[in-house]
Amino acid sequence: MNYQDFCGNESMLPTPYIRVVTKISKWEKYECIEINGFKFIYGSSIKNTESNLFEYKEIDNSSFFWALMTLYSKLSPDIFTHTQSAGNAAITDNDVKLILHFCKVHGLPFWNKKLDAAPFTNISNEEFFNDSSDKLDEMQKNILRSVIPYSQFNLFPISSLAVGLMSLRSDFLRIISYYGWENLINISLLLTPKDKKILSKMEYGSLQSSKHADINLYTPSLIGFTTQWDNQTLSLRLNCENLLHLSAYHLCLLMQSGTLGSGIIKTCPKCHKQFVANRRNQTFCHNPCTPQSFHMQKKRNNNSTERK
Ligand SMILES: [Zn+2]
Q1: Most buried of 86, 147, 215, 278, CB within 10 angstroms?
Q2: CB 157 within 8 A of CB 106
Q3: Is the dihedral of CA 183, 94, 166, 123 positive or negative?
Q4: How far is the CA of 194 from the centre of ligand 1 (A)?
Q5: Is 90 exceeded by the pLDDT of residue 16?
């Protein structure tokens, strides 16, 4: 096939393999701290204060996404408000515990010390709109290149995470409604009473037959996805700024594929990650955890407490 043929038929353009990489900020220790009355989750390194625990990672499964959606279902409903002071006031000890647990397993969902930070890019609006153009230029360059913006910040305000989760959740509900997934077991277990109320008002499902159901996904259109050539791996890579950004990408996958995949989403008792179980009685993720390794670990823990 020659170049003319390519141009004549867009759909025949071969698509290169794209690696999706995400900036991951994972720390050894997480705690809840308060700054000016606002609750933050702060990650730190025990071993080496100099260490920079930000790295690009290819995340090859969607467990982080289901973990975020499960987290949403479990958090106090009152923290989900665009008025961050009200959201902050509603945060309970249990909310903090749940978010710390998420961070321990997956890393920080985003990071910035400012309350007006856009959770999908880590960048604060104030800096984006008010700062000198020099700084803005530099920041935009950093986003496009492999420099991790705000890597000096290893913390985030819980109330801002709540705002980001709200956006993700409304898109998620739009997709559920569009494909009529409300009663699938993986979905129905996640839905809160408020979700169900919102879903009952959505009418995408009934419009689905009329081909042009007007579905607007907010988060994927809010933030861009940039790709760049990576000389090291000789592949085109798509960069996600953080786990929330990757979640928006995941919503695109759900929307375009129209499938949740098969299997049941469960939580592994050993590594506490969400995974898709192919059999109803599968309890462990099998990658890397097995029932044997779980019981061995339990035995070791019991032995060490006995020795104390
Ligand atoms: Zn596991």
Answers
A1: 215
A2: no
A3: negative
A4: 31
A5: no
Query: Are both 224 and 301 inside the same structural domain?
Result: no
Is the predicted pLDDT of residue 203 greater than 80, yes or no? no
Q: What is the DSSP letter of 124?
A: B
Average pLDDT over the chain reads 81
Neighbours of ion ligand 1 (CB under 5 A): 268, 270-271, 285, 289
pLDDT tens column, 29-40: 899 999 999 999
Shared domain check, 201 and 87: yes
Task: Examine the domain organization and report whether 163 and 273 are in the same domain.
Answer: no
- Dist. CA 283 → ligand 1 center (Å): 9
Global pTM reads 0.79
> Which residues are bridge partners to 230 per DSSP?
235
| Tokens found for residue 78 | 């009152």
Pair 64, 107 in one domain? yes
Distance 165 CA to ligand 1 centre (A): 25
What is the three-state SS of 169-235?
Answer: HHHHHHHHHHHCCCCCHHHHCCCCHHHHHHHHHCCHHHHHHHCCCCCCCHHHHHCCCEEEEECCCCE
Number of domains, the chain: 2
Domain co-membership, 142 together with 58: yes
In terms of Cα–Cα distance, which of 159, 81, 50, 68 is closest to 107?
Answer: 68
